[in-house]
Amino acid sequence: MAIINNIINTFSAGRLSKIADFAQNGDTIQREQLEKNLCKAKNTAFGLEHSFSSIKTYKEYADRVPVVDYEHFSPFIERMIKGEDNVVWPGHTRWFAKSSGTTNAKSKFIPVTNDVLDKCHYQGGRDVIYVYTKQNPESKMFMGKSLILGGSKKISAVNSRTVEGDLSAIMISNTPKWLNFFKTPSPDIALLDKWEEKLEKITAYTMHQNVTSLAGVPSWFLILIKHILQVAGKENLHEIWPNLELFIHGGINFTPYREQYKALAPKGINFLETYNASEGFFALQDDPSQNGMLLMLDYGTFYEFVPMSEIGNPHPKSYTIEDVEMGVDYALVISTNGGLWRYMIGDTVRFVSLNPHRIIISGRTKHYINAFGEEVMIDNAEKALLKATQATGAVIRDYTAAPVFMGTKKQGCHEWLIEFEKDPSDFELFRTTLDKALQEVNSDYEAKRYKDITLGGPILTVARQGLFYDWMSSRGKLGGQNKVPRLSNNREYIDQLLTMNK
Length: 502
What we know:
Layout: H1 2-20, H2 22-40, H3 45-49, H4 58-64, H5 70-81, E1 95-99, E2 108-112, H6 114-135, E3 145-148, E4 156-157, E5 163-165, H7 167-174, E6 183-184, H8 187-190, H9 195-206, E7 211-216, H10 218-232, H11 237-240, E8 246-249, H12 255-264, E9 270-277, E10 280-284, E11 293-295, E12 301-307, E13 329-336, E14 343-354, E15 357-364, H13 378-392, E16 395-404, E17 413-422, H14 427-441, H15 443-449, E18 459-462, H16 467-474, H17 492-500
Parallel strand pairs: 1-5, 3-6, 3-7, 7-8, 8-9, 17-18
Antiparallel strand pairs: 1-2, 4-5, 9-10, 10-11, 11-15, 12-13, 13-14, 14-15, 16-17
Helix pairs in contact: 1-6, 9-10, 13-14, 14-15
């Protein structure tokens, strides 16, 4: 396998040099991405409507094209799905990634052009391999296979010209067959629709293979791993796959799961985080010693950042990477070679480094709690929960939180519904540590909690075992990229869960 590593390092040298250039010339690289996209799309329906051919500066682009969410952009997508060509990107777009959309119950259909597939999604996968192999020259990853746990939506034809499915299914359908030598399970199993059937077949298929790396969403992968261990009668992953060395993860915050994965891989395992969504591949962890993921600047995506304080403004202020600041929560806005223009993806990011530009995903634009002016983001919640678990030895399987609104005889507060893998040694200590930690990481929450005047202490409600799994199953959202909504500004999700918590 040293031969394969040498080949990869030979091919990756030039690419890694370009990635290193992000730190010095990121602004220039990003301007080039915008110029290329505008030029290529100038004769599309969208490009003609917004006079792309006459746009010379970023300011002109921002003034001419509004920031939109999916609901406002969907009329263009609907035209494409019906088979119309040259709508937002040149030519015909055949593939559409069906996203469950955690911000809305309605499915989203994201155009996947040949450009975004190869120059963004696949390039992201290649760069992950280049970066990891450079950091681990003695890696034996290519001695075995990568176990990839993707979505559970099969490819299906909408009409004679249009096909939709989960992004992972689209990528599997377009991947050269020779790459299957390095991946498991087989495509027919990977594309199974039913989660429970998929779980059983992946277990049987992979238990006796030489799996050296894993790739997927931590929460769903943990369910698969525990099932495999139970079937195999083993205590840890290295008893099944002795050469396992890497877990490539993304989709949700890894902090609540890190210690569980370490315990399941006692010989040691490397972790590499990626930010890969239906709309594009945006960032990867280029340096395990640094916090955050490197924003990938040359995948055909032009990035803008809207401060959370501007959300709701019909003409929000937006910033390019030239003007962003560290420590600010920004809604991510993208213009891509998939034909998305000033599209607000729904995620919020925070810069932890500016040279190069590294980010963390801090939350969702619609998943936060601000019922009393406290502005609690998912990143705040994860940090506070980590302190509470450390203080009490607890292990969290899943959770959600929502406000309890003020009434004539009750004070407003937050309710946390948590399903524990391992119960806290002291539930009251868990609750008070969570409350105190939230005050430490969020000054607005601290101000509202002052002497209990505006906001009372949190309520901790313990979920029965399997509650979140059952709830996701009832909504048809098992597996893949489906995520439990962590925070909500209303009680829609938590009340549904509480009804099932019996």
